[in-house]
Structure formats: structure tokens, C-alpha cells
Amino acid sequence: MLNALVANQEMIGRDGNRMPALPHDKVVAALKARGVIIG
């Protein structure tokens, strides 16, 4: 699950539907703040 959160990339799918990537720095900061990851 963690890998999916930090290794994501922007995707453009069928009919031009766009899914932006999550901002990696904010995801890592949120996980650190909750003690999910250390470092």
C-alpha cells in the first residue's frame, strides 16, 4: 500500500480522464506525522 502511495504517476485514461499523481512530499509528511514511517 505504501509503495502505491509514493510510486504513483499521473495517468490519462479512456476518454481523456486524468488522474493526477499524489504530491509525494505531502504523502511522506503525513505518514511521518502519524508514525507510519520513520525517518
Topology at a glance:
Layout: H1 2-6, E1 11-12, E2 18-19, H2 24-33
Antiparallel strand pairs: 1-2
Question: What would the keywords be for this entry?
Answer:
39 residues; alpha+beta; two-stranded antiparallel ribbon; 2 helices
Short summary:
With 39 residues, this protein is an alpha+beta fold. It contains two helices and two strands.
Structural account:
The protein has 39 residues and is of the alpha+beta class. It contains two helices and two strands, in the order H-E-E-H. The protein has helices at 2-6, 24-33; strands spanning 11-12, 18-19. Strands 1-2 form a two-stranded antiparallel ribbon. A hairpin with a 5-residue loop joins strand 1 and strand 2.
Beta strand count: 2
Euclidean distance between termini CA atoms: 18 Å
Cα radius of gyration in angstroms = 13 Å
Give the helix level as a range of percent. Answer: 25-40%
Instruction: Provide the succession of SSEs.
Output: HEEH
Helix/strand/pairing class, anyone?
A: alpha+beta
- Sheet having the most strands: 2 strands, antiparallel
Strand order of the largest sheet: 1-2
Describe the global form: elongated
Q: Stretches where pLDDT falls below 50 for ≥5 residues?
A: none
Number of helices: 2
Mean pLDDT: 88
Percent strand equals 5-15%
